């Protein structure tokens, strides 16, 4: 079986054309990018606001409850409902993107909220005492301190979106999910397994990239680097990750 | 909505199968994750490997895992075991990290006190560390339960029926009632699982009842 | 102290888990993982009576036919259950192979193509005879029905008028501007896109893998310009789609036929299924599908009505 997957992955015919791996990979990354930008634009400000103000905490609870909605069901419902209302490709892409955005919001929201929430009240008070405005406190103190947890939320959301973007193929879209659905429809298990491998590989690459990014942008004062530790184990990073 | 009223029996039997297909892996996954998590907690060098390895399992698309399970296990293609095995893998992916976090959350002085009282090895783990880790583990279990209930619905694609059948049938024949029944059924099941886990966690940690309510699934 | 607490904790945990399992198990049949959901009779293997599991593909006509087969068998005292919506041919034939199911409604031409990718017969009798020779030793097809459900290429009336389309061949000049919608497997099947290319010289601008109601909606809303919809699909008439004539007979003959594991084909079973096939015509099938797909009735109900109206159940 492993040899047939390898053969499938190496077959030059699978590396060109509209159904080729580069095209499908680009489509997959395209959906992922659109979804992450939209979800982050919605969830991060909200999460920071809730964490900063302590108001509207029900948003976090509601977002967590929303994780129970079966993604496939939501996708089907939206496709049937929105499909006739939209024209062209949007009829297929809009439902998928909405579903994936909804999927990405809870971890992003939880990460941003938990990050700000975890800020030491003393640090916040000190910033206020120095005469900082609320917006300044958020930008200069809360945000940098919240960054590790916030980014771990981003990481959880990103991995989930990459893995789940495959279902878009079920409603007629492209992406790496095509190999899974088409492989299933035609009994081509090498294609299914190869597609799954590509998705897992993409997720791994994204995970490593984000880990590197986290190391680059998080203040050394938070990572323990100043003590000479290697800084890989960011405090609290795990707290949000299990939220997936 | 008359569709739902006319098909309550079908919805009920599918919901039961859904609960079994999502619930058993939760228990199996917990049983496997406890020793794995303990190892990663006890031997810190193992932790990054164990956490990254199990965490990556979660990125395998469910569609692919369901389809490939019969090949990996050598089972019959329509066997529900395929779904149970796949869901157990996802549960482990979520729970190992949770178990590590839970054991890490045990206060060092409590652990030291237990050691000083002569509790060692398994007795300290079962008597002190694990009970104190229950709140965190339960929070992770709640996330896994919700995730399982949602993912199991994909199993219709390989002919193992549960509430996902309503989603697929509703989509294929354009029946909104069936779609809604599937979605609401999943939500209700997720809620039921969530309540059961919270109640069990509360019962297992009687010392917490007097202080404050159990932490929610959110880091709230 | 610690010990008593941990013992109590373990006990509580055990009891709670047991109660969760009991809770989830007591609502349904004794074996909640028993794969049958639509039929009440259990697949027990205690007696020597024949047990037949009727499978179906994941589209409503296949589900309906499986219900009809199961109902007809039950009426003759055969213990028949259903295992519906399994998936595409490539999946359910594996299930037939490993004994998960014993019987499934099939289509003569498509099944023959599955076993022989160069199968070229188009005459119904020759297709059937050819199919018999292609089947693996463990499987057999019973008498085919007159009912035929073929692939068919459909366009909206507007598209048909715009390009003056009557036959599939007429598409050749315009296909480069058009999008084709069809189930995913159509892309690689010999009578699918490769067949359209070889037989008609048609290459569509793009391909949109869709099926069922979603495909019908996509054609109706102009998201695809041509769609491969099963010829018995009532949505064709309901939406006024124009079916293009398959003048070069690419899609061959597709008569509905029971495909059964030889081990399950006792004389009772064969007699019951032959009686069903004798009553099935394309018009009947279209009528029945209108009830399941347009009126949203349950396939099981529609199957029962058909069986009792024809003295089969």
Describe this structure in words.
Chain A: Keywords: Membrane, Transmembrane, Transmembrane helix, Transport. Chain A: This is ABC transporter permease subunit. Chain A: It is found in: Cell membrane; Membrane. Chain A: It is a multi-pass membrane protein. Chain A: Its main location: membrane. The complex is a heterotrimer of chains A (244), B (220) and C (313). Chain A has 244 residues and is an all-alpha fold. Chain A has eleven helices and no strands. Chain A has helices at residues 2-10, 21-53, 58-66, 71-82, 90-117, 121-129, 134-164, 177-186, 189-217, 220-223, 237-241. The model of chain B is unreliable at 212-220 (pLDDT under 50). Chain B has one domain (2-209): Orthogonal Bundle (MetI-like fold), CATH 1.10.3720.10. The longest helix of chain B has 35 residues, at 8-42. By secondary structure, chain C is α/β, with parallel strands linked by helices. Chain C has two domains: 51-149 and 253-309, Periplasmic binding protein-like II (D-Maltodextrin-Binding Protein, domain 2), CATH 3.40.190.10; 153-243, 3-Layer(aba) Sandwich (D-Maltodextrin-Binding Protein, domain 2). Helix content of chain C is 43%, strand content 13%. Chain C has a five-stranded mixed sheet. In chain C, strands 3-10-4 form a three-stranded antiparallel sheet. In chain C, helix 4 (108-115) packs across helix 5 (124-134). The longest helix of chain C has 25 residues, at 2-26. Chain C starts with a helix and ends with a helix. The model of chain C is unreliable at 1-48 (pLDDT under 50). The chains are: A mainly alpha (244), B mainly alpha (220), C alpha/beta (313).
